[in-house]
Amino acid sequence: MKTKHYFIQTFGCQMNIHDSEKIAGMLKKIGYEETQDKAEASIIVFNTCCIRESAELKIMAKIGDIKALKKANKDLIVVVCGCMTQQKGMPENLKKKFPFINIIIGTHNLEELENYVLKYEQTHKSFNEIWETEKEVKEQTPTFRTSKFNAWVNIMYGCNNFCTYCIVPYVRGRERSRKVEDIKKEVEELVKTNKYKTITLLGQNVNSYGKDFNDGKTNFVYLLKELCSIPGDFRIKFMTSHPKDFSLELIDFISSNNKMSKSIHLPVQSGSNNILKIMNRRYTVEHYKNLIDEIKNKIPNASITTDIIVGFPGETDEDFLQTCELLKYCNYNGVFGFVYSKRKGTPAEKFENQIPINIKRERITKLFEIQHKIVKELTDRLVGQTIEVLLEEKIKDCYIAKTDGGKTIKIKSENNLILGNYYNIKIKKALTNDLIGEII
Ligand code: SAH
Ligand code: SF4
Ligand code: F3S
User: Fold this and answer.
1) Using a 6 Å CB cutoff, which residues line ligand 2?
2) pLDDT tens readout for residues 306-349
3) What SS3 class is residue 32?
């Protein structure tokens, strides 16, 4: 029998990248093999994102692109899933625009995908199946991991925060934590393979892990302690944190445990208290700065990154200036900056004083200029320092690693070093794009 192939196109965050590993796992289970060539595929899955309008437009264009393929191959199965489809009215919209789509499912029934595909194979009847609300956490979904040394592990799903700009709580449902035992078992198995050196724990707000158990014991630090007790040479990272729930206990734990990665992503969104308030972020700039001070005091080699939204409705020049000031105060190793995008059904969609696109663009350009300078200074300061890095690849006689802030380090060595192991590197030189390091 001819081999059936799958092609998955993923958009959005790490959560979605990991969901695609589950999609791959399920498709393999029912007899499909991976292909990187769309033209060879018997099934194409679009795993979508709707965090900003730009994401949706890009996805629409990509779905439109396969019209010809579907025309040439009537048996091709086209699936659309992920956050975009979970929005009200979207499945109908998609179907109207692209009648050739065969299966549309939402985020809450992703784990059922294999059954839906089997059903379609038998009936050849297209359908949409969206569940309105989340169900209990489902364990044991087969996963085909595509990452090299890093393994993604969900610790919780959904979000209860309802920041006024954000679509995620509407498309991913309420917070549900996985049980400590289930997470621990998964991490133990990953570490045992000796392949994964970084375990990245995933959740929309990992700091509220375990709150839904209401047992007075389980929280995020409790989980981290359990995971760090697993023997082996690996590091634990996590994303994403919310400043309102990021505890001092967590900072102490990161500083004291050498399995904990020292890179911390702490999205602030804005440096203005007025804006934070109407974003419903529920912390102040002062609270945030205290956290940053505490992190820098207790974890001197911490690498801190953040997310910023510019052009939120009502953001004045003064509010924006305060964001620029905060950037300088925090000296971030990296900033993910976004232009505010109106999302249907969120409170901010209806806010007055929406900011014109030219001002949004000016602000994001300014933001990146400031951040660029900060990163340059931080990188220059690394020269002469020794840092621990994971060797990721070898190109000719040069090993490649990354700093916590994401800068590439090139290391020439005659020694036979092992990819996927941690080494201490002395930074010798900072070039415009890369750093030059030496094994010590
Ligand atoms: N749960 C995470 C990540 C959410 S999405 C968190 O709370 O940080 C990732 C980032 O996208 C957010 O941090 C925010 O900076 C950005 N974002 C979310 N909604 C947006 C919108 N409507 N317009 C522009 N950026 C947005
Ligand atoms: Fe969106 Fe806020 Fe939840 Fe993050 S914490 S997913 S920004 S609502
Ligand atoms: Fe992620 Fe996009 Fe959904 S950022 S949670 S895939 S809306």
Assistant:
1) 159, 161-163, 166, 168-169, 204-205, 242
2) 999 999 999 999 999 999 999 999 999 999 999 999 999 999 99
3) strand
Ligand 2 binding pocket mutation candidate from 204, 269, 275 (most atoms within 8 A of CB): 204
Kindly give the distance from the C-alpha atom of residue 24 to the centroid of ligand 1, in angstroms, as a whole number: 26
Cα separation, 256 vs 384, in Å, equals: 25
Q: Where are the domains of the chain?
A: 4-129, 147-261, 264-381, 386-439
Residues with Cβ within 8 Å of 382's Cβ and at least 6 positions away in sequence, in order, are 403, 427, 430, 435
Residue among 15, 170, 206, 239 whose CB has most ligand 3 atoms within 8 A, to mutate: 15
Q: Within 10 Å of residue 77's Cβ, how many Cβ atoms?
A: 23
The count of other CB atoms within 10 Å of the CB of residue 10 is 19
Per residue in 8-45, pLDDT (tens digit) is 999 999 999 999 999 999 999 999 999 999 999 999 99
Q: Do 147-261 and 264-381 have matching folds?
A: yes
- Quick one: fold of 147-261? Transcription Regulator spoIIAA (3.30.750)
123 vs 36: CA distance, rounded Å: 27
Which residues of 235-367 form beta strands (DSSP E)? 235-239, 263-265, 303-310, 334-339
